[in-house]
Design brief:
Layout lengths: L2 H6 L4 H4 L13 E7 L6 H8 L7 E8 L5 H9 L5 E6 L4 H11 L4 E4 L4 E3 L3 H9 L5 E12 L4 H19 L9 E3 H7 L10 H11 L3 E14 L3 H21 L3 H23 L1 H28 L4 H30 L5
Parallel strand pairs: 1-2, 1-4, 2-3, 6-8
Antiparallel strand pairs: 4-7, 5-8
Helix pairs in contact: 7-13, 10-13, 11-12, 11-13, 12-13
Length: 347
């Protein structure tokens, strides 16, 4: 089977045959696929958390994606004391291909894609697999998480507050789960693996294919994992810019043109308003007030939820500034990414 058929999905007769009858995943082998690249600062804590899972039947497949720091030696030392861990080393092929390599080398009926800069609660796998067993049509499981605040900055504080608000809105049913790291292998065989052509949002691309096939996304409402966050505001905005720049490929592939327009409209609207200040201040001020009023209406819902779950008022008041800065950084990335992508390549 070639790479393109894997990415788009190829449902074999043997996989189709599994659709009959009630499935039970609990107790079956689960594979934790862990791609890593220069994660020396966090890899030991990550592996320690994964090795403490209360679910008993699992393996850990680590794919070292060409790390140039001390990650390889740390992996060798740690794995020598734990027989669950297998290490695969490769040249730097990117996170999508590294996940695919780990998946192809794994043996589990359930696949959990972990991250080298995150730590996991001992009950993560146990809760996720129990959730899979609740409904035959569950194609993935969203387990709620929160930032692992290694450094206390305006960006990390804002990310934490926002994440807690989003999770509460998911619990209330106002938002649907928008990510998943745990899948039945049969679903991945049906919908395809990670697209190696994508260097950003490859997880959302896979998630979208699972949803498109009509599968439900299960939800574990407990916070059972934490993702490292230590960025200063400038570092965070640069990361947003780079993600926006690379995200254009994902938007183009999935024809999310409206999402792209929404992602850049505010930036170009701001440019127009600035120009109007020199031509017609009245129109410029009116336009600015309308834009701010539109945002404020949406912000009231965020404020309500934030106050309900006990987020500090000062953080809630500063959250709009964080969101606007992030939006503008992403928008610049989208714009640069679009023109970079459209530029003819020289052979």
């Amino acid at each position: 089977m070639n790479r393109d058929s894997l990415v788009e999905g190829n449902l074999s007769e043997s996989v189709a045959g599994m659709f009959a009858g009630k499935r039970h995943y609990y107790g079956e082998l689960a594979s934790i696929v862990l791609p890593v690249f220069n994660d020396a600062e966090t890899i030991i804590e990550c592996l320690q958390s994964l090795c403490k899972q209360t679910y008993e039947n699992y393996e850990i497949v680590v794919v070292d994606d060409g790390s140039t720091d001390s990650t390889p030696s740390l992996l060798r030392d740690f794995s020598s004391f734990n027989k669950r861990i297998r290490i695969i080393s490769t040249t730097h092929v990117g996170t999508s291909e590294a996940k695919n390599i780990g998946l192809q080398s794994s043996h589990g009926v359930v696949i959990f894609f972990a991250e080298g800069d995150a730590i996991y609660d001992p009950n993560y796998l146990d809760e996720a697999i129990k959730c899979l067993d609740l409904d035959d049509n569950t194609g993935g499981v969203c387990v709620l998480g929160e930032p692992w605040m290694v450094r206390d900055t305006f960006a990390t504080r804002s990310m934490y507050a926002e994440k807690m608000i989003i999770h509460e809105m998911i619990r209330e049913g106002r938002l649907e789960p928008y990510y998943s790291w745990v899948f039945p292998r049969r679903v991945l065989e049906e919908v395809g693996v990670f697209d190696p052509r994508l260097s950003q949002a490859e997880d959302r691309d896979l998630f979208a294919r699972v949803k498109k096939r009509g599968y439900k996304i299960g939800l574990v409402q407990k916070v059972l994992w934490r993702h490292k966050r230590d960025e200063t505001t400038i570092q965070f905005l640069l990361k947003c810019y780079n993600k926006g720049k690379r995200r254009v490929d994902y938007l183009s592939k999935n024809r999310k043109y409206l999402e792209f327009v929404r992602g850049v409209a505010g930036l170009f609207g701001l440019v127009v308003i600035i120009i109007l200040f020199f031509l017609s201040p009245t129109i410029a001020i009116t336009s600015l007030v309308v834009a701010l009023a539109s945002y404020f209406i949406r912000y009231l819902q965020i404020l309500r939820v934030g106050l309900k779950i006990g987020i500090q008022k000062r953080r809630l008041l500063l959250l709009p500034l964080f969101q606007i800065l992030r939006y503008l950084a992403n928008a610049v990335g989208y714009t640069v990414g679009l023109f970079t992508r459209a530029k003819p390549r020289k052979d």
